[in-house]
Structure formats: structure tokens, C-alpha cells
């Protein structure tokens, strides 16, 4: 596996990444990128100046996964998005992409990398729950019920730093996670 910058001139690669984005989110968050047009628009947006867009390819040039980052604060970047082709999940592709992204944002002067990971369908102990008034207590006691991505991010060093209750409708919070990537 090799990880490269995505180039705006490579329309075939952009289409392949868009397909992986749709396929990677179709089971648990189909509303995120429901079709190739919306996924292609997301990939193209990641190519704007100042952003980072990286792709993992196998030896034959097949897209294994994709990750992007957006500078949002003076020294904090948002990881957005991360996707691994379903056939390659659980094989270290996501971990490699995030490690590469951490080095990329650190080289840009970032101290923190953060992300939001929604619970749209009750895959954590936070789904379907009224998180008010003690939001932080719920954040501290979060549990993974059905393969939610927050557990992957915890394994690679991210921590839950907050919640946005009802971000996507009642009982559908956004779980905010962060990791220090440099000092």
C-alpha cells in the first residue's frame, strides 16, 4: 500500500474515491453521500487550496481508502472524511491513512487533529438518549454497542472531548474526538 496526494487532474481517481465513499458509508450512514454525484463533490471540495486530501492505493492502483483534512483553527485541523473500502476494513488501511494525515497536518504546524463521528442509528450508548442536562457525564460513559467508528479512533489515540447533542435530530449526537499530533 502507498499513500499519495490526490490531484485535481486525475478524474479517474476522483471517481474511484467517490465510489469508495458511497460504498463505505452506505451501510451505516447512507445519507452522508447517497450517490456518486454527492461523493464526487466531496472529493473535489477536498482539493481546494489549503486542504489535505490523501489516498491509499494498492500495487495495482486500486483505491483502498481516502482521508482529508481541513484547517479550522490556528493550530487545529479537522479530519474530514475518512473512508476505507469495505473489503479492506480491519486490515490497517484506516490506521495508516490517519497516521499519514497526522504527519501531514503536523508539518503544516498543527498541534491538534479532531473529528466528529455521528451516531445516527444507536450504535453507541448515546444514540436515542436525551443527553441533557449532564452531557459530559454521558460523554465520559460512552460505550460501543454495534461497531461504531469512535472505537477505532480511540484505538489509535483519539479521545472523546465533547458531544453535540441532537446534532442530527433528537437522540442523534455528534461525538467530537481529538488527538495531539505535535507540541
Describe it for me?
The protein is α+β, with helices and mostly antiparallel strands and 183 residues long. It is 29% helix and 26% strand. It is built from 5 helices and 7 strands. It has helices at 11-25, 36-45, 93-107, 135-140, 149-155; strands at 2-5, 52-57, 63-71, 76-84, 112-118, 159-164, 174-180. The chain has a 7-stranded mixed beta sheet with strand order 1-2-3-4-5-7-6. The two termini are 29 Å apart.
Question: Could you provide a short overview of the structure?
Answer:
By secondary structure, the chain is an alpha+beta fold.
Present the secondary structure layout.
Layout: E1 2-5, H1 11-25, H2 36-45, E2 52-57, E3 63-71, E4 76-84, H3 93-107, E5 112-118, H4 135-140, H5 149-155, E6 159-164, E7 174-180
Parallel strand pairs: 4-5
Antiparallel strand pairs: 1-2, 2-3, 3-4, 5-7, 6-7
Instruction: Write down the overall mean pLDDT.
Output: 95
Structural class: alpha+beta
Strand order of the largest sheet: 1-2-3-4-5-7-6
Helix proportion: 25-40%
User: Residue ranges: pLDDT <50 for 5 or more in a row?
Assistant: none
Order of helices and strands: EHHEEEHEHHEE
The outline comes out as globular
What's the total number of strands? 7
The number of distinct helices, counting runs of at least 4 residues, comes to 5
Radius of gyration: 16 Å
Strand coverage percent:
25-35%
